[in-house]
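Newbie here. two chains, one complex. Structure please?
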Amino acid sequence: MRFQDAARDARAVVYAGVQADPLVARATALLADATPAQRVLARAVMNGESTDPAAWRVMFPTLFGSSATATGTTERDRCEAILDASLAIAGRGDQVRSQFRGAIVEAIAELLLARRVPSGAIRRERRILFDGVVAEIHPYDVTVETPGAAEAYDCKWGARGISPDVLHQLDDARAHAAAEGERLLPVLVVFDARRSCEVRLARQTAPRTGTRLVTIETLDRLAGRRPEPPR
Amino acid sequence: MTDLQAAVERVVAALGRLAAVGETIQDEWIYVHDLETVWTARLRAVAAGQGSMAAPPWPEIEAALSGLVAEADRIADPHRAIDWLSTLPQATLVALGEAAW
């Protein structure tokens, strides 16, 4: 088993520009340390239509209402910053916001993983090659290339992104690694509720038992932390 | 029916309207209706319960759910509607002070 940079084709060049956008870095830094409720706020705003921040504050009273943390506190400031960044992304238009959302989930995964494993082991957009096996066309979003304990991550904004192709690619990598006597943990990271992911998976016949599922409520497990209690 | 149940039923009705938009993506017809079924059950179970200790005052909940329903009703794109079939329930549960899943 060996890892290789993905080809720098036109798609990769365009997407690299999205990944490097400062707005992606800003949203990523905020969401990596966000509470589950703050992450749901980001998801709603980036999926939504309204551009008025006041309307969103009304929709999320546990974050902005009378019982929320007071204005001027770190948590309240983070809520406002997440709202501001999410609106900026939503304002980029449908196609661009879709690319940004995907890039943000990948970047969050990378950032949280860096709190658990040495950052030098974490790579983006990598292919995994096995002897005698035709390489997959699509690279993995994030890989942890630790000898003897590698991890391969596919990141999705929503549960709808879970497809048979995704599940097969992840499971094939695990199986091919095992055939070479290597250990590779495939992980699907979805910025959506586990309930929706389970609905999506319920009718899929592709193998998934060897693939770990990390969802919006358990993102912190990537960093080796237990999920925050909901609020 | 309590005020909370009535408000949650308005969210459930909005889920139904999102499903009607989302189901126009024919390949996702079953997924759309599975989402609607599962999240409707979750929302109704919460509405029938005791309510969260972390719940905001009722007027803020009522305004929040009205705002979320209005936001859902702005969604005209079927792909976005499918995203909102998952997002609306999560946001509703957060507004109620519940775990969003």
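Moderator note: Residues 3-22 of chain B form the longest helix (20 residues). Chain B touches chain A at residues 28, 30-31, 34-35, 38-39, 42, 54, 56-57, 60-61, 63-64, 67-68, 71, 74-75, 77, 80, 82-84, 86-87, 89-91, 94-95, 97-101 (CB under 8 Å). Thread marked as resolved.
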